[in-house]
Amino acid sequence: MKKRISPAAIQCLKEALTYIFWYKRDLRSFLYHALESSNILARINWDDLKRNIAHDLVNELMKDQEKYQTEIIDLMNEVCQMEDFSHLRRLDDGKKKETLAKEAVSALRKQFVGHQQLVEEIKQMELRRERAHKKSMQIQAVQQKLNELSSEYALLLGSTEPNKRGYRLEKILRELFEIFDLDPKASFKITGEQIDGAFSFEMTDYLLEAKWQKSPVAARDMDSLTGKLSRKLDNTLGLFISINGFAQDSVKAVSSGRRLIILMDGSDLMAVLEARIDLGQLLLRKRRNAAETGNIYLRFHEFL
Q1: How far is CA 5 from CA 10, 36, 71, 115, 175, in A?
Q2: How far apart are CA 151 and CA 272, in angstroms?
Q3: Fewer CB within 10 A of the terminal residue: the chain, N end or C end?
Q4: How many Cβ atoms are within 10 Å of 227's Cβ, its own excluded?
């Protein structure tokens, strides 16, 4: 059950609001800036006596403590922070007015101390809400971008122009890697139907090569990537993407090589674009399976 603000603290808040300002316009200005839901002030009769105004305002907030609890706590905290009452001292009988204000705020502070745990709980709740909202917005933004890329990729499936298709596939891959924070090192290069690039993931550097040709990629088509890897540091891995898959001889040849090359086809790419798995998880599963079993061509549908 949610902890509630004590009646004693509420009464002290009413008293403090009555005394901290002499003029109603000053009290109204203070409340306008202190309350997030300042529209609640429109429900108050500002022609009434100041004490009635203070009581009516707090009572209005307390009608729905579940909704306004954070604002009540924030208002109590704002009042407790007040120490300078020189604006009262300048009035007729100013010392008395200042004393009454100080005493009322002091009484509220004593009650407020017992609500510090509630204050901390509210802070933590707001942080969780903020994180959840931020995560939700990020998920929505990623989903929206994936939908755009998926639609663009679907249009390419019927394309018969290799150069145009290669250019648009490069754009899709580059943006996909950026979405999942895979740190593309530079713009991917296009040569005919081949795309070359590099990226970092999980503290490991990868060389990327992608092809979109009619037939499955053969062993000879992978010589370029294996050659580049041979000139890199031993911990550099390879990712070869072939939209139309790989011939058996290419998988066997690359599997027996000294460097680890992970293979990814069009169905894997579609799984990522359709948000059935994120690109980072896909690479991790493929890399782990390759290390454990030697199978460098584990497709997404085989994960399940």
Answers
A1: 7, 19, 12, 7, 50
A2: 13
A3: N
A4: 9
Q: Is the dihedral of CA 224, 226, 231, 233 positive or negative?
A: positive
Cα separation of 245 and 233, whole Å?
A: 28
pTM score: 0.57
Q: Tell me the C-alpha distance between 297 and 255, whole Å.
A: 9
pLDDT at residue 134 above 80?
no
How far apart CA 191 and CA 212 sit, in angstroms, is 11
* 206 bridge partner residues: 199, 237
Burial label for 154, CB within 10 Å (0-12, 13-18, 19+), is exposed
Please list the residues that pair with 217 across neighbouring strands.
Answer: 246
Identify the DSSP state of 209.
E
Residue type, 145: K
Compute φ and ψ for 112, nearest 5 degrees.
Answer: -70, -30
Q: What angle do CA 179, 183, 184 make, to 5 degrees?
A: 95
Distance (Å, whole) CA 135 – CA 145: 15
Cβ atoms within 10 Å of 241's Cβ, excluding its own: 20
Domains and CATH numbers, the chain: 7-114 (no CATH), 162-302 (3.40.1350.10)
